[in-house]
Amino acid sequence: MFPLRAPDRVGAFSFDAGPLSIRLTGRAWSGPPVHDDAGYASAALAYQLTLARTPAARWAWSSVDGRAGAAGRGGMSPAAWIAREEAAVATAWRERLTRVSIDVPASGRR
Questions:
Q1: Does the pTM of the predicted model rise above 0.85?
Q2: Contact at 8 Å (CB) between 21 and 44?
Q3: Of 17, 27, 41, 67, which residue is the least packed, with the fewest Cβ within 10 Å?
Q4: Bridge partners, 11 (sequence order)
Q5: At residue 70, does pLDDT exceed 70?
Q6: Angstrom distance (rounded) from CA 42 to CA 11
């Protein structure tokens, strides 16, 4: 995982610590490294947000299929890789949406 902005809090929890949704509401986020014998450990990154009246926030999360660092992103920085991936997704959606048409009866048109 490659956070583009450092999180305000980071936590790792064993499976036996209980549901992550409950752990997130508590203060016990830091501590020793976590080892989970069952392999079901969880982790979370927390960010403090303050949104303006017309709220907008852009978040990107990058995880590379078990390949390490920049090698998994073709040598690109995380920000450049995410920008490329977002552009590819936007292009794919535009192509799909241009094939959609909606017929509205005259009474429903403005």
A1: no
A2: no
A3: 27
A4: 44
A5: no
A6: 8
The model's pLDDT over 11-24, given as tens digits with 9 standing for 90+, comes to 888 888 777 777 77
- The DSSP element (H or E) to which 8 belongs, if any, is none
Q: Which among 29, 31, 28 has a CA at the least distance from the CA of 7?
A: 29
Query: Distance between CA atoms of 78 and 61, rounded to whole angstroms?
Result: 9
Amino acid identity of residue 23, one-letter, is R
Alpha-carbon distance 48 to 62, whole Å? 19
Query: Per the structure block, which two tokens stand in for 4?
Result: 């583009």
Q: What residue ranges in 1-110 does DSSP mark as E strands? A: 9-13, 42-46
Cα angle value 54/86/24 (rounded, 5°): 60
Asked if 62 and 78 touch (Cβ cutoff 8 Å), the reply is yes
Are 82 and 60 spatial neighbours (Cβ–Cβ below 8 Å)? yes
Do 78 and 6 form a contact (C-beta atoms < 8 A)? no
Look at residue 73 and give its three-state secondary structure. helix
